[in-house]
Amino acid sequence: MSKIVVGNLKMSLTKHQVEDYVSIINKEKFENVDLILCPSFIHILMFNSKNYSVGAQNVFYEQLGPYTGEISAMQLKEIGVNYVIIGHSERRTIFNETNSIINKKINACLDNNIKVILCIGENKEQKDSNETSNVLKKQIEEALYGIKSSNLQNIIIAYEPVYSIGTGNALTKDEIKSNILYIKSIINNNFNSDCKVIYGGSVNKENANDIIDVCDGIMVGKMSNDAKEFIKLLSIVNM
Ligand code: PGA
């Protein structure tokens, strides 16, 4: 079974760096990897190979109108975007995105035939006070409120514990396994359906193999920013 790999490029690359990145990554094809590259909005059209899908890192929930600075799901679909990352912890914390805003964004994407990568995850304080299960359940149930079971096939859940993002400290294989199983059980109980669940947070060449063993794929931030290094990581997942 193919594994999903999402490259979350965040706001990390300049135009020139993206030109180099694309020229390197476009030469690669991985049989056992569903690669989804998510650059900044302004670089999306530079990613133009059939070897991967292109995703955006954010979206606004309205379709068209007086929303200065925003970009809609309809506009993204028009330029060939097939995925959107929604609810990343950086958006929840820096831009105050709530589960209810996230729910509206998910609906906007599904209405425009765009697949959703929904990020959830507890922070350190919540983990330390044994709140992880409650936090994950609330994030899932509120973000997916009113979503039809048939749409679960268009949603990937990315489990990203906030304290492991960008820190070099991924969770252990056992921790990831038990939280992924828990997330799958919530989906099953609420929707009577399956959903792909991937892990994100300090994934690298050393831990990728162990991690993909216990989930449907990975979301990679820092280690996806250098095309050559990312290709090495992708080769490990492709094995
Ligand atoms: P990281 O980021 O791989 O740099 O930890 C992951 C993410 O934010 O999705």
Counted up, domains total: 1
- What is the 3D shape? globular
- What is the CATH level 1 assignment? Alpha Beta
Question: Bound small molecules, which ones?
Answer: 2-phosphoglycolic acid
- Tell me the quaternary state: single chain
Task: Kindly report the average pLDDT value.
Answer: 97
From the 3D coordinates, which CATH architecture would you assign? Alpha-Beta Barrel
Can you describe this structure?
The protein is built from nine helices and eight strands. The longest helix has 19 residues, at 173-191. The chain has a single domain, classed as TIM Barrel (Alpha-Beta Barrel). The N and C termini lie close together (11 Å). Helix 4 crosses helix 6 (132-143) and helix 6 crosses helix 7. The protein is globular. The chain is α/β, with parallel strands linked by helices and 239 residues long. The mean pLDDT is 97. 37% of the residues lie in helices and 17% in strands. An eight-stranded parallel beta barrel has the order 1-2-3-4-5-6-7-8, surrounded by four helices. It binds 2-phosphoglycolic acid.
